[in-house]
Write a structure and sequence with these properties.
Blueprint (H helix, E strand, L loop, with lengths): L3 H23 L5 H12 L1 H11 L5 H12 L11 H19 L3 H24 L1
Helix pairs in contact: 1-2, 1-5, 3-5, 3-6, 4-5
Pfam families: Ribonuclease_3 (PF00636)
Function: Involved in correct processing of both the 5' and 3' ends of 23S rRNA precursor. Processes 30S rRNA precursor transcript even in absence of ribonuclease 3 (Rnc); Rnc processes 30S rRNA into smaller rRNA precursors.
Family: Belongs to the MrnC RNase family.
Length: 130
């Protein structure tokens, strides 16, 4: 088994690509700058932290173990724009995504990605309406 930070490294890329594809497919006529603005909502640590916390109970025991390993991983870098706790939970989510991707568990990966995207979309819409 790889280091949780290795899983998070690849998970970050997989998640970013998923979000970019989803945003483009839902909004085919935007400028690159507007795509950037839309995607930042999904890839910021605070959004990812909310998503993994809401999704946690839907995970199986192995996935929960991977998430915990990712959350507890000792990183040498910390985001300048995120609270430490959000950063750790975002790393946990990326670790799970990277793990599923590298294990070639594509069906489960697609489910997790779609759930995360939906959770963040709902959170954004709720906060926008309040």
């Amino acid at each position: 088994m790889l280091s949780p930070l290795v899983y998070a490294y690849i998970g970050d890329a997989v998640y970013e690509l998923y979000v970019r594809n989803k945003v483009i497919s839902e909004n085919p006529d935007l400028t690159p700058y507007l795509y950037y603005l839309k995607t930042t909502m999904y890839v910021r640590a605070s959004s990812q932290a909310v998503a993994i916390k809401k999704l946690y109970e839907k995970l199986d025991e192995n996935e929960k173990r991977i998430v915990k390993r990712g959350r507890n991983a000792k990183t040498k870098t910390i985001s300048k724009n995120a609270k430490l706790s959000d950063y750790k939970y975002a790393t946990a989510l990326e670790t799970l995504i990277g793990y599923l991707y590298l294990e070639n568990n594509i069906e489960r990966l697609e489910y997790i990605l779609s759930q995360v995207y939906e959770i963040i979309t709902q959170e954004y819409q709720t906060s926008k309406n309040n």
